[in-house]
Specification:
Blueprint (H helix, E strand, L loop, with lengths): L20 H14 L2 H6 L8 H15 L3 E7 L3 H7 L8 E7 L5 E11 L2 E5 L1
Antiparallel strand pairs: 1-2, 2-3, 3-4
Length: 124
């Protein structure tokens, strides 16, 4: 490594879950940059899914995780999102990922953002 580029990564699992939408955004961006569907899945809101739904979701995440992320953007739901991003209460919103496609094209994937048990997660 020549030192000109910092390695792409994300917080370790030992450091816990995303405590703000910004952390969630950074976690997903790092997981996609690594192309690691298991890291992407750590940020997914699995609560209430049966095994058939979970399999379909993992398949979809696997297809997405192979594509480079060009940009991410979190859109909150008003004043609650500003408090949430500052580490306070609130939650919800949407996280958009712009993914590279074939031939220079790009596509946008929108995830719903959920606050659950003090952590932030995404879902389709």
């Amino acid at each position: 490594m020549d030192g000109s580029h910092a390695p792409v990564g994300r917080r370790t699992a030992a450091s816990g879950c995303a405590r703000s939408p910004t952390q969630l955004q950074m976690d997903l961006r790092g997981a996609f940059a690594l192309g690691d569907v298991n890291r992407v899945a750590e940020s997914y809101h699995w609560v209430g899914m049966d095994s058939t739904q979970a399999k379909g979701t993992m398949d979809r995440l696997q297809r997405l995780a192979t594509r480079p992320v060009l940009d991410t953007q979190y859109y909150g739901t008003g004043i609650g999102s500003m408090l949430a991003d500052a580490g306070g209460g609130g939650g919800g919103g949407m996280l958009q990922l712009v993914l590279a496609g074939d031939g220079g094209s790009a596509s946008v994937v929108a995830f719903d953002v959920h606050r659950y048990a003090g952590c932030y997660f995404v879902s389709f």
